[in-house]
């Protein structure tokens, strides 16, 4: 039986008088691309932010690779093994593409502050290895030739790829992509789909929040649909597309 990389159950979150999430749970198996979709205001981003440590849930349980964990802060979640990208790109604009990826890689280093100050042999060797791995990841996502370009000079699509490379640099057990196709043209979306498919074929596990339902249905192994903070469907893309509650949520024929 394929192991579960992430199990979350009973997740609820309230903001003042708004119940943003009500008893939501998902299980993502190793090697899956798992989609999270829903109309605007459905609670997708809130759920994503709870899983990745930006928001503290009011209730719920979390397991990562079979071990309980508490998503208390983004950097702690990254150390635990979940790397994320953001809907609004968050790169270091005046650092090079290579340097941006190296920042992600540093979470897995061990030299520490004193090694950096005194530039010990271990530190120098580790930095060399980080730079090498970071270049490999830039090549992997298709932007290796831009390693020495400042992040802000890259095209929008290439900045998205750079974010994914930086996330991969943390050696995550789960890579969580928040609206990666947002703002992309049709050509960039095709390239993104090919990249996500490549990552999956390398036996990585992906959680994908995306407005582009066609992209989700073409890529994902399983899909959860949220509406008004509640889980209204979960299953294969084919099953979800036929679900009457999902059809009503998207077409507005359910009394919304």
Automatic annotation (TrEMBL):
Pfam families in UniProt: ABC_tran (PF00005), BCA_ABC_TP_C (PF12399)
InterPro entries referenced in this protein's UniProt entry, alphabetically: AAA+_ATPase, ABC_AA/LPS_Transport, ABC_transporter-like_ATP-bd, ABC_transporter-like_CS, BCA_ABC_TP_C, P-loop_NTPase
The protein's name: ABC transporter ATP-binding protein
One CC-aspect GO term: plasma membrane
GO biological process: D-alanine transmembrane transport; L-alanine transport; L-isoleucine import across plasma membrane; L-valine import across plasma membrane
Domain of life: Bacteria
ABC transporter domain ranges (all copies): 6-253
Single Gene Ontology MF annotation: ATP hydrolysis activity
PROSITE patterns found in the cross-reference section: ABC_TRANSPORTER_1, ABC_TRANSPORTER_2
Assigned keywords, A-Z: ATP-binding, Cell membrane, Membrane, Nucleotide-binding, Transport
CDD domains referenced in this protein's UniProt entry, alphabetically: ABC_Mj1267_LivG_branched
SMART domains: AAA (SM00382)
